[in-house]
TrEMBL record:
CDD domains membership: Hfq
GO biological process, one term: regulation of RNA stability
Region (Disordered): 81-106
Organism: bioreactor metagenome
Protein name: RNA-binding protein Hfq
Length: 106
């Protein structure tokens, strides 16, 4: 990820399209995942949201926000097709290039 300043906003050039694609697919398909954290702890549930820094995992109706830097491995319940042509990423819908997101900054 690279930050570039443009006016009062930051442009984030993303180099993590594969993780975005995987998280998007398991969320869209409501596919259960097992997350292994850096400390070895396992978490199971549905990915119900994610952004550049966090993943929201829902287990038994309870939401947990996990920072991506704490995640070691994500294992979907079944294989996920990672063909990027199937999805239009949210940044493309907003009229931005697929590798840029905007963040307000000071």
């Amino acid at each position: 990820m690279h930050l570039k300043r443009k006016g009062s906003a930051f442009i984030v050039t993303k180099t993590n399209q594969l993780q975005d694609l995987l998280l998007s697919r398991v969320r869209r398909d409501k596919l259960p995942v097992t997350l292994f954290l850096m400390n070895g702890f396992q978490m199971r549930g549905l990915v119900t949201g994610c952004d550049l820094f966090t993943v929201v995992l829902t287990t038994d109706g309870k939401q947990q926000m996990i920072y991506k830097h704490a995640i070691s491995t994500i294992i979907p319940e079944r294989p996920v097709d990672l063909n990027p042509e199937e999805d239009v990423l949210p940044t493309q819908k907003a009229g931005r290039s697929p590798t840029e997101s905007r963040f307000a900054g000071g």
